[in-house]
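Hey forum,

I'm writing up a methods section and want to include a predicted complex as supplementary material. The small molecule is zinc ion. I've pasted the protein sequence and the SMILES. Can someone with a working setup run it? I'll credit the forum in the acknowledgements.
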Amino acid sequence: MMIETHCHLDYLKAESLEVIRQKIKDAGIMKVITIGVDPLNLDLVVDISDQHEEIYFTQGIHPHDSKDATEVEFQKIRDRSVKPKMVAVGEIGLDYHYNNSVPEVQRKVFETQLQLACELDLPVVIHTREAEDDTKAILKNFSRSLKKKGVIHSFTSSPDLAEFVLSEGFYIGFNGIITFKKAENVQDVVKITPIERILFETDSPFLTPVPHRGKENAPYYLPFVAAKIAELKALDLEQLKDQVLKNSLQCFPKLA
Ligand SMILES: [Zn+2]
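Reply by user p_vandermeer:
Happy to help. Structure tokens for the complex are below, copy them as they are.
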């Protein structure tokens, strides 16, 4: 059995949620975390989770949308945190590749939400791209107060950042990127990450794994991610799945 720790069910368009849910079940996936990031979809994500037993959720403002973050969204994060199925604050972080919001605003909104996670005693789901120094500096500041840690999802940064976040107690989430031909850098990070600190995710509808490139990604493609990690680390697939299931429950205690 597996847990899909990161997807965006509110963005999936190719199939109905009922079809997707059946395929998820058939793929041996017992629980799914749908990540709320779009300020316009925070309510929708909660509704999807409310209506479906196996679907859990998060609430957060993505670095791209930092410029639109207001107290209204932060209050939503606070209010929903009491729900049993809100497992984390996220995804939050820094993205200097696209710079859809200016870095200064991104940093401020990242810090505000890390502070919220500390107050709510929840783990965080972090997105970081081409922002290694600032990610490190900010996480260092929250090192003591962020008790539950969380995951650096869709990891594409350097082995150096991987070592830093591992030493800080975070998990690392890998997705279909590791199946791409030109992903040696991420594959190298898989190799140095202890299996006790790995999480599986798809980040669907983005980043469809090989051999389904060109189609909309979906949570039921998670087995391709698991198989690739087993191959890269020369591990027995079932043994890896058992360990990663434990990791997912430890990273997100409200899943248990
Ligand atoms: Zn995402």
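Some notes you might quote in the supplement: Strands lie at 2-7, 29-34, 55-59, 86-95, 124-129, 150-152, 171-174, 198-200. The CA atoms of residues 199 and 244 lie 6 Å apart.
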